[in-house]
Design goal:
Structural class: alpha+beta
Shape: globular
Distance between the termini: 27 Å
Strand order of the largest sheet: 1-2-3-5-4
Oligomer: single chain
Order of helices and strands: EEEHEEH
Largest sheet: 5 strands, antiparallel
Bound molecules: zinc ion
Number of helices: 2
Radius of gyration: 14 Å
Length: about 140
């Protein structure tokens, strides 16, 4: 993640929010509508505890802006923020809208080892365009 720079397309998703210190990528794989990964774009850090206080404030503001953008567009019942990094140890946070017809309504929705097929291109592009428009007016 450190070495990829700040691309528009990181292979897993397309960026809709380019924050002060982090980028938010809408995931192509049809895990859940709006499933997004926010990636810290500063020096290599694994845990949020390695950030200075100023960096932590900047990171979580970018995460919250991402979450608000998703909330505004998808109107989920609940948002889950998941900062794990067990498999890929560079600071990133999954921001997951949760819905009534969710596959695991009372528990976490894990990022699967075997990714499902991508969303239909028109659905993905429409969501991405709406999120980019909303994100351009962040900070909320
Ligand atoms: Zn790193």
């Amino acid at each position: 993640m450190c070495q990829e720079g700040r691309p528009e397309d990181n292979g897993f998703g397309l960026r809709f929010l380019c924050g002060c210190v982090a980028d938010a990528y809408l995931q192509r794989a049809a895990i859940q509508r709006g499933y997004t990964v926010v990636i810290w774009r500063g020096r290599h850090v694994v845990e949020p505890t390695e950030l200075t206080s100023a960096e932590a404030v900047a990171y979580w503001l970018d995460v919250v802006d991402t979450a608000r953008t998703l909330e505004t567009h998808f109107q989920p019942l609940k948002l889950n923020l998941w900062t794990a990094g067990n498999g890929l140890p560079h600071l990133h946070t999954h921001v997951i809208p949760r819905f009534l017809d969710d596959p695991a309504p009372e528990g976490p929705l894990a990022y699967p080892d075997d990714l499902p097929d991508p969303f239909p291109d028109d659905v993905f592009r429409d969501d991405l365009a709406a999120l980019r428009k909303l994100a351009s007016s962040a900070r909320f």
